[in-house]
Amino acid sequence: MKKLSFLIGLLMSIVVFSQDLMGLSWQLQKVKYQGKIFDYFVPSQPDPSFYRNNTVFSSASVESQLFNSFNGNISSVTHDHFTVNGFGGTLMDSPDENFKLFESNYANIFLLPESPRTFHYAISPTSGNMVQLVLTDDENGNQIFYQAQMLGSNQNLQKRLSVYPNPVTDVLKIKNLRELSMITITDASGKKVYESISNGKEMIEVNLKHLPQGNYFVKVNDEQPLKIVKH
């Protein structure tokens, strides 16, 4: 029974992890290594096309394409932590010494002081339909910052999206969300009164009891806002 419970828990953690991170192409913004911030940049010389910026997570691995290519194995997944082991990559030297340093610092976060490394991860909305992913090594404070554009919704999203009850008195339910949907609620003047990201949840509940009566607008990703009435 204990073994079965462990396997169920492991499978559930992988599902949560994949819903949060998989399916998006993450771009490096910056790294914090040994207390110093290093911003990502594309050298002007030589050919900038040699430099890529793409990181993809799966339920079992992480792969990054910069000047070099890196990959590592992911294990011990929980709702907010995972472990990276066996991280490595190609060994070509970037002609730009500053980028070479940036790339080295990025790899070292996964490798030093010893592998495997365990990271706390958090996803939060930034602006528009962009989200930020922050990996933090709780042991030494090293961090990696990524950003990604949320998946565009299809034309049928408005038909499938369910917002109820309407009118609403206290708790509003928003159902049939995509894996990474950004939800914002504004009042009639356009002032934002609520913002959140679904993080893999198909349905969320929003407590509107504290808001005054009136008209509000619920917006999911870049779709047209849906009008609700607060009683």
List the keywords.
single chain; alpha+beta; Lipocalin; Immunoglobulin-like; 17% helix; elongated
Helix content: 10-25%
Structural class: alpha+beta
Q: Characterize the overall form.
A: elongated
At CATH level 3, the topology of the largest domain is: Lipocalin
Instruction: Please report the total strand number as a whole number.
Output: 16
- The CATH class of the largest domain, by name, is Mainly Beta
| Major β-sheet annotation | 9 strands, antiparallel
Q: What is the CATH architecture annotation of the largest domain?
A: Beta Barrel
Which strand order do you get reading across the main beta sheet? 2-1-9-8-7-6-5-4-3
Your description of this structure?
β7 and β8 (130-137) form a beta hairpin. This protein has helices at 2-21, 97-111, 157-160, and strands spanning 27-33, 36-39, 54-57, 61-65, 69-75, 81-89, 117-125, 130-137, 143-149, 162-164, 171-175, 182-187, 192-197, 203-207, 214-220, 226-230. The protein starts with a helix and ends with a strand. The chain is built from 3 helices and 16 strands. Strands 2-1-9-8-7-6-5-4-3 form a 9-stranded antiparallel sheet. It has a 4-stranded antiparallel sheet with strand order 13-12-15-16, with no helix packed on it.
